[in-house]
Amino acid sequence: MIFVRVQVYPQATLSTLGNRIMDLQLPIHNDQAEIEIIVQEVQSIISLKKELKKRTNVLIDKSL
Predict the structure, then answer these.
(1) What DSSP assignment string belongs to 31-59?
(2) Does position 17 have pLDDT exceeding 80, yes or no?
(3) What pTM does this model have?
(4) Residue-wise over 12-23: b if at least 16 C-beta within 10 A, else e?
(5) Cα separation of 30 and 38, whole Å?
(6) For 15-19, what is the mean pLDDT?
(7) Are 26 and 54 in contact (CB under 8 A)?
(8) pLDDT grade for 22, boundaries at 50, 70 and 90
(9) Per-residue b or e along 24-61, where b marks 16 or more CB atoms closer than 10 Å to that residue's CB
């Protein structure tokens, strides 16, 4: 497994992170098939999140 350093800058915590941001490591699989499975699952989760947000907005609009 390969680890890649990633810099993330959340708006609310940027000033409090300091050098700890360099401690973040993300695992990346060597197996291309496993990478594809992960990519598909993440895409599915993102699509579901978008759909749920739309449905939530419809419910909110109907209740007003």
Answers:
(1) -HHHHHHHHHHHHHHHHHHHHHHHHHHHH
(2) no
(3) 0.56
(4) eeeeeeeeeeee
(5) 12
(6) 64
(7) no
(8) confident
(9) eeeeeeeeeeeeeeeeeeeeeeeeeeeeeeeeeeeeee
